[in-house]
């Protein structure tokens, strides 16, 4: 059970960076970015290529820069070319498949077993300490803490408040002499940088990159976002961000338990869909439950 929890914690922390990205783009900016799957793989592929070349720390910065580029293209399609936000995300996600193959040198897999990564370097640094063997969790926790601290301070700045205002009412933002195009571009660039960082860390953690590493990531992140919003959806930015991380851990724990019970791999997509349905419909059903209970009581009385 301890190993089960550690696995869920590691994956939950790494994937929570993508959840925090959706928290910024979906919850704050009110833009549903469907390029998440491709951007996640883009960050993983770029980070892996740079790490294989012998620059593990530089790979993180380059992967985040790749995410910024992906977010910039998505934002330009929406704001300058009049493409619907959902369609823009789908277009970028489709294009990134070819881009990712090109980045990976025409191959669909990069093996990093003999590559020095930030995790292998941390493993040597933590040797002989109580954290020995838990370098993945340690690095992922540091990344999550830094991203949460950044979000807490960034969203309280003038630019951050403008991004939040754009998500609430873009027409009001225009009347306040704030350029919604600029705030949308900045918001999506920052969000996609977090997504690419998540992909980069996951690839270095599992020492391989597959072209399908990011497949279904938007569903996983959305489910985690909704779970976190249900648990800690009220409060300040810090509380809500912590809720996103908690939601990611709970989702991964359910995933890990499903695998533990020898559930076929092809069923995991169905599990993701069911969790999303429960996360979305749960608050609504809870709100409607008194009315449903009255109807059931009235039906029994009529009989």
Describe this structure in words.
The protein is an all-alpha fold and 303 residues long. It has helices at residues 2-28, 36-52, 56-79, 85-103, 118-125, 135-154, 158-168, 170-175, 180-206, 217-232, 237-260, 268-302, and strands at residues 109-111, 208-210. It has a two-stranded antiparallel ribbon. Helix 11 crosses helix 12. The protein starts with a helix and ends with a helix.
| Strand content bin | under 5%
Major sheet: 2 strands, antiparallel
Total strands: the figure is 2
N- to C-terminal distance? 49 Å
Tally of helical segments: 12
Strand order of the largest sheet: 1-2
Evaluate the radius of gyration: 20 Å
SSE ordering: HHHHEHHHHHEHHH
Mean pLDDT: 87
Strand pairing plus helix content: what structural class?
Answer: mainly alpha
What attributes does this structure have?
mainly alpha, 12 helices, 77% helix
Quick recap of the structure?
The protein is 77% helix and 2% strand. It is built from twelve helices and two strands.
């Amino acid at each position: 059970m301890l190993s089960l929890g550690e696995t869920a914690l590691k994956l939950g922390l790494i994937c929570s960076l993508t959840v925090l990205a959706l928290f910024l783009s979906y919850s704050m900016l009110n833009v549903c970015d469907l390029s998440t799957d491709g951007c996640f793989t883009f960050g993983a592929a770029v980070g892996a290529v740079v790490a294989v070349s012998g620059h593990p720390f530089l790979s993180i910065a380059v992967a985040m820069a790749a995410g910024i580029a992906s977010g910039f293209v998505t934002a330009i399609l929406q704001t300058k070319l009049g493409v619907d936000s959902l369609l823009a995300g789908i277009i970028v996600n489709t294009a990134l498949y070819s881009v990712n193959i090109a980045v990976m040198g025409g191959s669909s897999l990069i093996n990093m077993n003999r590559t020095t990564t930030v995790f292998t370097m941390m493993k040597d640094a933590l040797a002989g300490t109580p954290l020995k063997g838990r370098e993945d969790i340690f690095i992922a926790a540091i990344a999550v803490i830094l991203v949460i601290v950044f979000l807490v301070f960034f969203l309280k700045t003038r630019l951050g408040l403008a991004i939040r205002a754009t998500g609430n009412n873009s027409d009001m933002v225009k009347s306040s002499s704030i350029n919604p195009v600029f705030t949308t571009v900045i918001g999506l660039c920052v969000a996609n940088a977090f997504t690419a960082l998540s992909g980069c860390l996951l690839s270095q953690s599992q020492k391989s990159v597959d072209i399908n590493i990011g497949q279904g990531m938007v569903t996983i992140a959305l489910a985690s976002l909704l779970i976190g919003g249900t648990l800690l959806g009220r409060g300040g930015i810090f509380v809500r961000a912590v809720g996103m991380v908690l939601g990611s851990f709970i989702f991964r724990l359910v995933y890990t338990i499903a695998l533990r019970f020898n559930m076929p791999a092809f069923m995991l997509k169905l599990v993701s869909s069911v969790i999303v349905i429960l996360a979305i419909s749960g608050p609504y059903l809870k709100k409607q439950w008194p009315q449903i209970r009255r109807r059931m009581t009235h039906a029994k009385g009529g009989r």
